Amino acid sequence: MRQIANRSLAANLILLLGTLWVVPARAQNIAVPSASDTAVPHTPLRTHANAASPTAAEIIERMLPRNQERLATLERYESERTYRVEYTGTGGEHHAEVHVHAEYMAPDQKRLTVVSKSGSKLLYEKVLRRLVESEQEATAQSTRMQMTLGPKNYDVELLGEETLPMPDGPIRTWILRVTPKVINKFTYRGSIWVSEDDYALVKIQGEPAKNPSWWINRAKFESTYLRRGHLWLPSKITSSSHVRIGGEATLTIEYGAYPVLLERTPRAIVESAQNPSSAVALGR
Question: Which CA distances in Å does 137 have to 23, 76, 84, 213, 274?
Fold first, then answer.
């Protein structure tokens, strides 16, 4: 009976893998505030944006090139990540956790070293180890998900404004509803939060536009980011999915504090300093 339960658990895990990986994982679910975060009250949503605010289409139009420009300035980083998966279903409750040292060097060199692991060996082998090994693929997929946020693929609607607490102080954001025009594994429906001062993607909440399997009847994700210098880097990602015949899994990735981070000064900031009028064209 134990072998049967283990095979059923493994089968459910394989079904859940697809949706657990459908997350914007680069520079991209519910963030647990730190002590410094909770010191700043969370401002309720203002459903009507200021009359001077740009339209939803203008926000997206300015956000995409700025995100790409920031990404191009990243030279190197190191971080201590924690990957955690929790499963409830066949055979009871199971969990596993792995701590990883991550190193990145532009343009595309990445090395992840497993420092320690604990919990279910099956969850580690079927989920966490595969996730770490496929990090490069996940990065490319996540970048593509961000770049698809254009008018060809999405309808966008400005819902309002919200001030979010951050370790270095509160930040004002626009909230946009995004609805995919194209249904595939890279698109999603949900909401995004965009910084008002530099048009950075700060937070995403959503669900895949395309259900990866009939067996999955619910899947969702949330990604949060923190500002490091001119860059916005992943802070925490949570992805969860549920199997119709029973079983639910939640994957959490916490990215740590990035103790080593090297970047070049973004070209837009240099141009803005040399020619103040350029800041208008960049939406600042």
Answer: 12, 19, 19, 20, 38
| Res. 100: pLDDT tops 50 | yes
Residues with Cβ within 8 Å of residue 234, at least 6 apart in sequence? 25, 26, 27, 28, 223, 224, 225, 253, 255
Among 224, 217, 218, residue whose Cα is nearest residue 253: 224
Place of tokens 């949330």: 222
Gap between the Cα atoms of 57 and 277, Å rounded? 22
Sequence-distant (≥ 6) Cβ neighbours of residue 2 within 8 angstroms = none
How far apart, in whole angstroms, are the C-alpha atoms of residue 93 and residue 185? 29
List, for residues 227-260, the tens digit of each pLDDT value. 988 889 999 999 888 877 778 889 999 999 899 8
Residues in the chain: 284
Task: Flag whether pLDDT at 191 surpasses 90.
Answer: yes
- Spatial CA neighbour of 263 closest among 79, 81, 71: 71
Cα 28 to Cα 232: distance, rounded to the nearest angstrom: 9
- Among 238, 249, 254, CA closest to 86: 249
